[in-house]
């Protein structure tokens, strides 16, 4: 499997326009795809939601503007509406720049399948003061099972939230910990370049200029972080050469591609939770009803549960169902010939 990059968080504030105009003219999504919800966050009063695609606003036009937030799953869901050269991240940013905008956060994720990064090694070099960067702090997190002692998660974060961070974590461990069965990957490390405010606006400008996302990511990483050789004669570590493993990782840019495969994420968490937490209980109850009474009683019991659930479905639930259907009907690739792909 080839290493890849993708946008994994996209947040921007648009001034002096309505949320409906943002949906129609910027996101290019029909209003009927969204549920209007009477609450928000960060002092916003309302928001439109199409599953994890969120547009926050106030009842009256204010200096706060309209806030568009696509977290990781929201980015994957929005890609269902991208269509090659006609609509992609480049053209979206270009449409945004026709308004007064401020990009508040953009994350670029690098999925690594070739073992070119090791989280324990990165942590060891940070701990030994062999990381050259403008950042002042790093954090290391480890998650384990109390019963077995097995490590089920590990993360290194360099830099401060609100400015720029480079976060590297074991994605394979994370997915398995969530109960997902991964059969096509032996190793999966994710490195995320997280940029806020000024840094996010720089990334947006680079995207607008049609600079390949792979080049944007590796240029930022290579310019802000270095891991240098230990036990060098030069006591000034900033003059030391890069250690071999870091140099090899930086060179993976040549074989890293833009991720263009649709992940179809809507309701995926619900599916996993239902399979893991509910399926066994339902099976026990079905068998109990079947053995105690009859097959008809058991099936009626299951049908009644579905009926109760159907009565609880909200407008937001309906929009998530519609988004799920769209995702299943769309092809896996959302446009090979893209403006934001590097030229071959």
Shape: globular
Structural class: alpha+beta
Number of strands: 13
Strand proportion, as a percent range, falls in: 15-25%
- Taking the alpha carbons of the first and last residues, their distance comes to 19 Å
Structural Rg: 23 Å
Helical proportion? 25-40%
Blueprint of the fold:
Layout: E1 4-15, H1 19-26, E2 35-37, E3 46-50, E4 53-57, E5 66-70, H2 72-78, H3 89-96, E6 100-112, H4 119-127, E7 131-133, E8 138-144, E9 151-160, E10 164-170, H5 171-177, E11 189-196, H6 197-208, H7 213-224, E12 225-227, H8 244-250, E13 257-258, H9 268-292, H10 295-311, H11 315-329
Parallel strand pairs: 1-13
Antiparallel strand pairs: 1-5, 1-6, 2-3, 3-4, 4-5, 6-11, 7-12, 8-9, 9-10, 10-11
Helix pairs in contact: 3-6, 9-10
Provide an overview of this structure.
It is built from 11 helices and 13 strands. The strands form 2 sheets. Strands 1, 2, 3, 4, 5, 6, 8, 9, 10, 11 and 13 form an 11-stranded mixed beta sheet that branches. The chain has a two-stranded antiparallel sheet with strand order 7-12. The protein has helices spanning 19-26, 72-78, 89-96, 119-127, 171-177, 197-208, 213-224, 244-250, 268-292, 295-311, 315-329; strands spanning 4-15, 35-37, 46-50, 53-57, 66-70, 100-112, 131-133, 138-144, 151-160, 164-170, 189-196, 225-227, 257-258. Helices cover 37% and strands 24% of the residues. Among the domains are: 1-5 and 109-259; 268-329, no CATH class. The chain is globular, with a radius of gyration of 23 Å. With 344 residues, it is an alpha+beta fold. A hairpin with a 2-residue loop joins strand 3 and strand 4 (53-57).
